[in-house]
Amino acid sequence: MEKSNPKRILVVGLLCVDIIAECDSYPIEDTDQRCREMRKQKGGNGANTSYVLAEFGISVDLLTNIGSGNDMEFVKMSMSSVNLSKSLHVNEPMPTSLVIINAQNGSRTILHSGQSLPELKLDDFTRINLSEYRWIHFEGRSSNAENICEMIAFIRHFNHNTEDPIIISIEIEKCREEIICFFDKADVVFVSKDHVKFHGYHTPEDGIQNLITKCKPGATLICAWGDKGAWAKPPSGEIVKSSAYPPKKVIDTLGAGDTFNATMIYSLMQNIPLQQSLDIACRISGAKVGQKGYHGLREQIEDYFIKSGCVM
Ligand SMILES: Nc1ncnc2c1ncn2[C@@H]1O[C@H](COP(=O)(O)OP(=O)(O)OP(=O)(O)O)[C@@H](O)[C@H]1O
Ligand SMILES: *[C@@H]1O[C@H](CO)[C@@H](O)[C@H](O)[C@H]1NC(C)=O
Ligand SMILES: *[C@@H]1O[C@H](CO)[C@@H](O)[C@H](O)[C@H]1NC(C)=O
Ligand SMILES: *[C@@H]1O[C@H](CO)[C@@H](O)[C@H](O)[C@H]1NC(C)=O
Ligand SMILES: *[C@@H]1O[C@H](CO)[C@@H](O)[C@H](O)[C@H]1NC(C)=O
Ligand SMILES: *[C@@H]1O[C@H](CO)[C@@H](O)[C@H](O)[C@H]1NC(C)=O
Protein backbone atom coordinates (compact mmCIF):
# COMPACT_ATOMS: atom_id res chain seq x y z
CA MET A 1 0.00 0.00 0.00
CA GLU A 2 1.27 3.50 -0.80
CA LYS A 3 1.84 5.76 2.18
CA SER A 4 0.82 9.41 1.87
CA ASN A 5 4.26 10.45 3.08
CA PRO A 6 6.82 7.68 2.94
CA LYS A 7 8.95 9.28 5.64
CA ARG A 8 6.35 9.69 8.40
CA ILE A 9 7.21 8.72 11.99
CA LEU A 10 5.15 8.69 15.17
CA VAL A 11 6.85 9.21 18.54
CA VAL A 12 4.99 8.32 21.75
CA GLY A 13 6.35 9.89 24.93
CA LEU A 14 6.50 12.78 27.34
CA LEU A 15 6.54 16.51 26.69
CA CYS A 16 7.56 18.64 29.65
CA VAL A 17 9.36 21.82 30.59
CA ASP A 18 12.85 21.96 32.05
CA ILE A 19 14.10 24.89 34.11
CA ILE A 20 17.86 24.73 34.20
CA ALA A 21 19.89 26.69 36.72
CA GLU A 22 23.62 26.57 36.19
CA CYS A 23 25.38 27.46 39.45
CA ASP A 24 29.00 28.06 40.39
CA SER A 25 28.51 25.54 43.17
CA TYR A 26 25.61 23.64 44.62
CA PRO A 27 23.37 26.15 46.44
CA ILE A 28 23.37 26.35 50.22
CA GLU A 29 20.02 25.97 51.95
CA ASP A 30 18.23 29.11 53.15
CA THR A 31 20.46 31.51 51.25
CA ASP A 32 19.74 34.03 48.53
CA GLN A 33 22.28 33.77 45.76
CA ARG A 34 22.94 34.31 42.06
CA CYS A 35 23.48 31.63 39.49
CA ARG A 36 25.43 31.79 36.21
CA GLU A 37 22.48 31.23 33.96
CA MET A 38 18.86 30.18 34.17
CA ARG A 39 16.94 28.98 31.14
CA LYS A 40 13.69 27.28 30.35
CA GLN A 41 13.30 24.72 27.56
CA LYS A 42 11.11 21.91 26.37
CA GLY A 43 12.11 18.50 27.58
CA GLY A 44 11.08 14.87 27.83
CA ASN A 45 12.64 12.02 25.88
CA GLY A 46 9.71 11.60 23.51
CA ALA A 47 9.60 15.32 22.80
CA ASN A 48 13.36 15.55 22.29
CA THR A 49 13.57 12.58 19.93
CA SER A 50 10.69 13.89 17.81
CA TYR A 51 12.23 17.34 17.81
CA VAL A 52 15.59 16.11 16.52
CA LEU A 53 13.92 13.96 13.85
CA ALA A 54 12.03 17.05 12.69
CA GLU A 55 15.29 19.02 12.65
CA PHE A 56 16.58 16.36 10.26
CA GLY A 57 13.71 17.11 7.92
CA ILE A 58 11.55 14.07 8.73
CA SER A 59 7.85 14.55 9.00
CA VAL A 60 7.09 13.52 12.58
CA ASP A 61 4.07 13.39 14.85
CA LEU A 62 4.31 13.32 18.63
CA LEU A 63 1.59 11.58 20.62
CA THR A 64 1.62 12.93 24.17
CA ASN A 65 -0.64 14.43 26.78
CA ILE A 66 -0.06 18.18 26.72
CA GLY A 67 -0.47 19.72 30.15
CA SER A 68 -1.92 23.17 30.71
CA GLY A 69 -0.70 26.34 32.43
CA ASN A 70 1.62 29.19 31.54
CA ASP A 71 4.29 27.02 30.00
CA MET A 72 1.99 25.22 27.61
CA GLU A 73 2.20 27.80 24.81
CA PHE A 74 5.94 28.21 25.32
CA VAL A 75 6.57 24.50 25.01
CA LYS A 76 4.29 24.13 21.99
CA MET A 77 6.08 27.00 20.29
CA SER A 78 9.49 25.41 20.81
CA MET A 79 8.07 22.21 19.29
CA SER A 80 6.64 23.93 16.23
CA SER A 81 8.55 21.71 13.79
CA VAL A 82 6.81 18.62 15.22
CA ASN A 83 3.18 17.92 14.35
CA LEU A 84 1.24 17.87 17.63
CA SER A 85 -2.20 17.47 16.09
CA LYS A 86 -2.44 13.86 17.34
CA SER A 87 -1.66 14.90 20.93
CA LEU A 88 -4.26 15.53 23.60
CA HIS A 89 -4.72 18.55 25.82
CA VAL A 90 -5.37 17.69 29.44
CA ASN A 91 -6.33 19.98 32.24
CA GLU A 92 -3.42 19.20 34.54
CA PRO A 93 -0.22 21.18 35.08
CA MET A 94 2.55 20.67 32.52
CA PRO A 95 5.20 18.40 34.07
CA THR A 96 8.16 20.52 35.08
CA SER A 97 11.69 19.55 36.02
CA LEU A 98 14.04 21.82 37.89
CA VAL A 99 17.65 21.03 37.05
CA ILE A 100 20.46 22.43 39.18
CA ILE A 101 23.82 22.09 37.49
CA ASN A 102 26.90 22.46 39.65
CA ALA A 103 29.42 23.96 37.21
CA GLN A 104 32.35 22.75 39.38
CA ASN A 105 31.86 19.16 38.33
CA GLY A 106 28.79 19.19 36.12
CA SER A 107 26.65 17.28 38.65
CA ARG A 108 22.94 17.47 37.88
CA THR A 109 20.33 17.55 40.63
CA ILE A 110 16.85 17.15 39.20
CA LEU A 111 13.46 17.72 40.84
CA HIS A 112 10.40 16.45 38.96
CA SER A 113 6.82 17.60 39.31
CA GLY A 114 3.64 17.00 37.37
CA GLN A 115 2.87 13.45 38.42
CA SER A 116 -0.82 14.29 38.08
CA LEU A 117 -0.55 14.39 34.29
CA PRO A 118 -2.28 11.20 33.13
CA GLU A 119 -0.23 8.66 31.17
CA LEU A 120 -1.31 7.74 27.63
CA LYS A 121 -3.83 4.91 27.45
CA LEU A 122 -4.61 2.36 24.76
CA ASP A 123 -7.77 4.31 23.89
CA ASP A 124 -5.69 7.40 23.11
CA PHE A 125 -3.60 5.30 20.77
CA THR A 126 -6.31 3.41 18.91
CA ARG A 127 -7.62 6.74 17.53
CA ILE A 128 -4.45 6.92 15.43
CA ASN A 129 -4.58 5.82 11.79
CA LEU A 130 -1.63 3.44 11.75
CA SER A 131 -1.47 3.33 7.95
CA GLU A 132 0.10 6.77 8.03
CA TYR A 133 3.31 5.55 9.64
CA ARG A 134 6.34 3.64 8.64
CA TRP A 135 7.99 3.74 12.07
CA ILE A 136 6.69 4.22 15.64
CA HIS A 137 9.13 5.01 18.45
CA PHE A 138 8.25 4.70 22.14
CA GLU A 139 9.80 6.31 25.17
CA GLY A 140 9.92 3.30 27.51
CA ARG A 141 8.28 4.90 30.52
CA SER A 142 8.36 2.79 33.66
CA SER A 143 5.20 4.43 34.98
CA ASN A 144 3.30 3.41 31.85
CA ALA A 145 4.67 -0.03 31.01
CA GLU A 146 1.32 -1.81 30.83
CA ASN A 147 -0.33 0.73 28.51
CA ILE A 148 2.72 0.86 26.24
CA CYS A 149 2.71 -2.92 25.90
CA GLU A 150 -0.97 -2.77 24.94
CA MET A 151 -0.24 -0.11 22.30
CA ILE A 152 2.53 -2.26 20.87
CA ALA A 153 0.23 -5.30 20.79
CA PHE A 154 -2.23 -3.14 18.84
CA ILE A 155 0.47 -2.33 16.27
CA ARG A 156 1.46 -5.98 16.03
CA HIS A 157 -2.14 -6.86 15.28
CA PHE A 158 -2.18 -4.20 12.56
CA ASN A 159 1.13 -5.55 11.22
CA HIS A 160 -0.31 -9.07 10.86
CA ASN A 161 -2.88 -7.74 8.44
CA THR A 162 -0.73 -5.57 6.20
CA GLU A 163 1.98 -6.04 3.62
CA ASP A 164 3.64 -2.91 4.89
CA PRO A 165 4.37 -3.52 8.58
CA ILE A 166 5.34 -0.68 10.89
CA ILE A 167 8.76 -0.86 12.52
CA ILE A 168 8.60 -0.46 16.30
CA SER A 169 11.46 0.98 18.34
CA ILE A 170 11.72 1.66 22.08
CA GLU A 171 14.27 3.17 24.43
CA ILE A 172 15.09 1.50 27.72
CA GLU A 173 16.89 3.99 29.90
CA LYS A 174 16.10 3.88 33.61
CA CYS A 175 17.29 1.36 36.15
CA ARG A 176 13.83 -0.06 36.81
CA GLU A 177 12.44 -3.59 36.88
CA GLU A 178 9.18 -2.46 35.25
CA ILE A 179 10.83 -1.69 31.92
CA ILE A 180 12.59 -5.01 31.42
CA CYS A 181 9.36 -6.22 29.77
CA PHE A 182 10.04 -3.85 26.85
CA PHE A 183 13.00 -5.85 25.51
CA ASP A 184 10.92 -8.39 23.62
CA LYS A 185 8.39 -5.89 22.30
CA ALA A 186 10.28 -3.92 19.68
CA ASP A 187 12.14 -4.49 16.42
CA VAL A 188 14.77 -1.93 17.40
CA VAL A 189 15.72 -1.57 21.06
CA PHE A 190 17.86 1.27 22.42
CA VAL A 191 19.33 0.38 25.81
CA SER A 192 21.27 2.83 27.95
CA LYS A 193 24.64 2.27 29.57
CA ASP A 194 22.97 2.69 32.98
CA HIS A 195 20.37 0.03 32.23
CA VAL A 196 23.08 -2.37 31.02
CA LYS A 197 24.94 -1.83 34.31
CA PHE A 198 21.69 -2.32 36.22
CA HIS A 199 21.71 -5.90 34.88
CA GLY A 200 25.26 -6.32 36.19
CA TYR A 201 27.16 -6.06 32.89
CA HIS A 202 30.14 -3.76 32.76
CA THR A 203 30.90 -3.54 29.07
CA PRO A 204 28.61 -2.85 26.10
CA GLU A 205 29.66 -6.14 24.42
CA ASP A 206 28.83 -8.15 27.52
CA GLY A 207 25.54 -6.27 27.95
CA ILE A 208 24.43 -6.75 24.37
CA GLN A 209 25.48 -10.40 24.20
CA ASN A 210 23.33 -11.16 27.25
CA LEU A 211 20.42 -8.74 26.80
CA ILE A 212 19.85 -9.75 23.17
CA THR A 213 18.45 -13.02 24.58
CA LYS A 214 15.61 -10.96 26.09
CA CYS A 215 14.75 -9.44 22.70
CA LYS A 216 12.45 -11.01 20.15
CA PRO A 217 14.05 -13.00 17.33
CA GLY A 218 15.07 -10.68 14.51
CA ALA A 219 15.41 -7.62 16.73
CA THR A 220 18.28 -5.15 16.67
CA LEU A 221 19.78 -4.05 20.01
CA ILE A 222 21.66 -0.74 20.18
CA CYS A 223 23.72 0.64 23.05
CA ALA A 224 25.47 4.03 23.13
CA TRP A 225 28.35 4.31 25.58
CA GLY A 226 29.15 8.02 25.86
CA ASP A 227 32.59 9.01 24.64
CA LYS A 228 33.47 5.36 23.96
CA GLY A 229 31.10 5.23 20.99
CA ALA A 230 28.27 2.78 20.35
CA TRP A 231 27.62 -0.94 19.88
CA ALA A 232 24.81 -2.87 18.25
CA LYS A 233 23.71 -6.41 17.45
CA PRO A 234 22.01 -6.99 14.09
CA PRO A 235 19.22 -9.57 13.66
CA SER A 236 21.83 -12.04 12.45
CA GLY A 237 25.57 -11.80 12.70
CA GLU A 238 28.08 -10.46 15.14
CA ILE A 239 28.04 -7.30 17.27
CA VAL A 240 29.19 -4.21 15.40
CA LYS A 241 30.66 -1.05 16.91
CA SER A 242 31.62 2.49 16.09
CA SER A 243 34.09 4.67 17.91
CA ALA A 244 32.97 8.09 19.09
CA TYR A 245 33.94 11.12 17.04
CA PRO A 246 34.88 13.67 19.69
CA PRO A 247 34.73 17.31 18.66
CA LYS A 248 37.72 19.62 19.15
CA LYS A 249 36.04 20.93 22.28
CA VAL A 250 33.09 19.46 24.18
CA ILE A 251 30.50 22.23 24.49
CA ASP A 252 27.18 20.60 25.38
CA THR A 253 26.59 16.90 26.01
CA LEU A 254 22.90 17.42 26.82
CA GLY A 255 21.09 16.18 23.77
CA ALA A 256 23.81 13.75 22.61
CA GLY A 257 21.43 10.87 23.35
CA ASP A 258 18.51 12.40 21.41
CA THR A 259 20.76 13.07 18.45
CA PHE A 260 22.17 9.57 18.53
CA ASN A 261 18.73 7.90 18.79
CA ALA A 262 17.17 10.13 16.15
CA THR A 263 20.04 9.58 13.71
CA MET A 264 19.82 5.80 14.16
CA ILE A 265 16.08 5.85 13.45
CA TYR A 266 16.57 8.16 10.48
CA SER A 267 19.31 6.01 9.03
CA LEU A 268 17.75 2.58 9.65
CA MET A 269 14.49 3.84 8.22
CA GLN A 270 16.35 4.33 4.98
CA ASN A 271 17.73 0.79 5.09
CA ILE A 272 21.30 1.88 5.72
CA PRO A 273 23.21 -1.13 7.12
CA LEU A 274 23.58 -1.23 10.91
CA GLN A 275 27.34 -0.70 10.98
CA GLN A 276 27.12 2.35 8.76
CA SER A 277 24.12 3.72 10.69
CA LEU A 278 26.08 3.46 13.95
CA ASP A 279 29.00 5.27 12.38
CA ILE A 280 26.79 8.09 11.10
CA ALA A 281 25.00 8.37 14.47
CA CYS A 282 28.31 8.64 16.33
CA ARG A 283 29.57 11.26 13.87
CA ILE A 284 26.42 13.35 14.11
CA SER A 285 26.12 13.08 17.91
CA GLY A 286 29.84 13.82 18.20
CA ALA A 287 29.29 16.99 16.16
CA LYS A 288 26.29 17.81 18.40
CA VAL A 289 28.45 17.57 21.52
CA GLY A 290 30.77 20.18 20.01
CA GLN A 291 28.07 22.83 19.62
CA LYS A 292 24.98 24.27 21.29
CA GLY A 293 21.76 23.35 19.53
CA TYR A 294 21.28 21.30 16.38
CA HIS A 295 22.09 23.71 13.56
CA GLY A 296 23.94 22.32 10.58
CA LEU A 297 23.41 18.68 11.58
CA ARG A 298 20.77 18.09 8.92
CA GLU A 299 23.19 19.14 6.18
CA GLN A 300 25.84 16.82 7.63
CA ILE A 301 23.49 13.84 7.62
CA GLU A 302 22.36 14.56 4.10
CA ASP A 303 25.99 14.74 3.09
CA TYR A 304 26.73 11.27 4.46
CA PHE A 305 23.74 9.86 2.63
CA ILE A 306 24.72 11.41 -0.66
CA LYS A 307 28.32 10.25 -0.26
CA SER A 308 27.21 6.71 0.48
CA GLY A 309 24.96 6.73 -2.55
CA CYS A 310 21.66 6.58 -0.68
CA VAL A 311 18.66 8.20 -2.25
CA MET A 312 16.45 9.96 0.26
N1 LIG B 1 32.02 13.46 25.00
C1 LIG B 1 31.67 12.92 23.82
N2 LIG B 1 32.49 12.95 22.76
C2 LIG B 1 32.14 12.42 21.57
N3 LIG B 1 30.97 11.82 21.35
C3 LIG B 1 30.11 11.75 22.36
C4 LIG B 1 30.39 12.30 23.67
N4 LIG B 1 29.33 12.08 24.47
C5 LIG B 1 28.42 11.43 23.70
N5 LIG B 1 28.88 11.23 22.44
C6 LIG B 1 28.19 10.56 21.32
O1 LIG B 1 26.80 10.54 21.59
C7 LIG B 1 26.34 9.19 21.64
C8 LIG B 1 25.28 9.11 22.73
O2 LIG B 1 25.83 9.55 23.95
P1 LIG B 1 25.47 8.92 25.37
O3 LIG B 1 25.83 7.48 25.38
O4 LIG B 1 26.07 9.80 26.39
O5 LIG B 1 23.89 9.03 25.32
P2 LIG B 1 22.82 9.17 26.48
O6 LIG B 1 23.37 8.69 27.76
O7 LIG B 1 21.60 8.55 25.92
O8 LIG B 1 22.70 10.75 26.49
P3 LIG B 1 21.73 11.72 27.30
O9 LIG B 1 22.55 12.14 28.47
O10 LIG B 1 21.52 12.82 26.29
O11 LIG B 1 20.50 10.93 27.62
C9 LIG B 1 27.55 8.34 21.90
O12 LIG B 1 27.39 7.06 21.34
C10 LIG B 1 28.66 9.13 21.20
O13 LIG B 1 28.72 8.78 19.83
C1 LIG C 1 15.99 17.85 25.65
O1 LIG C 1 16.51 18.88 24.82
C2 LIG C 1 16.91 20.03 25.54
C3 LIG C 1 17.37 21.04 24.53
O2 LIG C 1 16.28 21.47 23.74
C4 LIG C 1 18.02 19.65 26.51
O3 LIG C 1 18.40 20.76 27.29
C5 LIG C 1 17.52 18.56 27.45
O4 LIG C 1 18.58 18.14 28.28
C6 LIG C 1 17.03 17.38 26.64
N1 LIG C 1 16.44 16.40 27.53
C7 LIG C 1 16.65 15.11 27.42
C8 LIG C 1 15.90 14.23 28.36
O5 LIG C 1 17.42 14.63 26.59
C1 LIG D 1 -0.43 17.80 11.09
O1 LIG D 1 -1.08 16.61 10.76
C2 LIG D 1 -2.44 16.75 10.40
C3 LIG D 1 -3.05 15.39 10.14
O2 LIG D 1 -2.62 14.46 11.03
C4 LIG D 1 -2.55 17.63 9.18
O3 LIG D 1 -3.92 17.85 8.88
C5 LIG D 1 -1.86 18.96 9.41
O4 LIG D 1 -1.84 19.70 8.23
C6 LIG D 1 -0.43 18.74 9.90
N1 LIG D 1 0.15 20.02 10.26
C7 LIG D 1 1.28 20.44 9.76
C8 LIG D 1 1.76 21.77 10.26
O5 LIG D 1 1.92 19.80 8.96
C1 LIG E 1 30.34 17.76 42.93
O1 LIG E 1 30.89 18.62 43.87
C2 LIG E 1 30.17 18.67 45.09
C3 LIG E 1 30.83 19.73 45.93
O2 LIG E 1 30.64 20.99 45.35
C4 LIG E 1 30.19 17.32 45.75
O3 LIG E 1 29.44 17.38 46.96
C5 LIG E 1 29.54 16.33 44.82
O4 LIG E 1 29.61 15.06 45.39
C6 LIG E 1 30.24 16.36 43.49
N1 LIG E 1 29.47 15.50 42.61
C7 LIG E 1 30.02 14.74 41.71
C8 LIG E 1 29.08 13.92 40.85
O5 LIG E 1 31.21 14.65 41.56
C1 LIG F 1 -5.57 6.19 6.98
O1 LIG F 1 -4.41 6.64 6.32
C2 LIG F 1 -4.27 6.11 5.01
C3 LIG F 1 -2.90 6.51 4.50
O2 LIG F 1 -2.65 7.86 4.70
C4 LIG F 1 -5.42 6.64 4.15
O3 LIG F 1 -5.31 6.12 2.84
C5 LIG F 1 -6.75 6.21 4.77
O4 LIG F 1 -7.81 6.79 4.07
C6 LIG F 1 -6.82 6.65 6.23
N1 LIG F 1 -7.99 6.06 6.85
C7 LIG F 1 -8.85 6.78 7.54
C8 LIG F 1 -9.98 6.03 8.17
O5 LIG F 1 -8.74 8.00 7.68
C1 LIG G 1 18.17 7.44 23.71
O1 LIG G 1 18.22 6.07 24.07
C2 LIG G 1 18.98 5.80 25.24
C3 LIG G 1 19.04 4.31 25.42
O2 LIG G 1 17.82 3.76 25.75
C4 LIG G 1 18.36 6.51 26.43
O3 LIG G 1 19.16 6.34 27.57
C5 LIG G 1 18.21 7.97 26.12
O4 LIG G 1 17.53 8.61 27.18
C6 LIG G 1 17.46 8.18 24.83
N1 LIG G 1 17.33 9.60 24.59
C7 LIG G 1 16.16 10.15 24.27
C8 LIG G 1 16.13 11.62 24.17
O5 LIG G 1 15.17 9.48 24.08
Automatic annotation (TrEMBL):
Record key words, sorted: Kinase, Signal, Transferase
CDD domains noted in UniProt: Ketohexokinase
Pfam families per the UniProt record, alphabetical: PfkB
GO biological process assignments: fructose metabolic process
Residue span(s) of domain Carbohydrate kinase PfkB: 7-293
Keyword Protein transport part of the UniProt annotation: no
Cleavable signal peptide: 1-25
SUPFAM superfamilies: Ribokinase-like (SSF53613)
Molecular function GO labels: ketohexokinase activity
Protein name: Carbohydrate kinase PfkB domain-containing protein
The species this protein was found in: Artemia franciscana
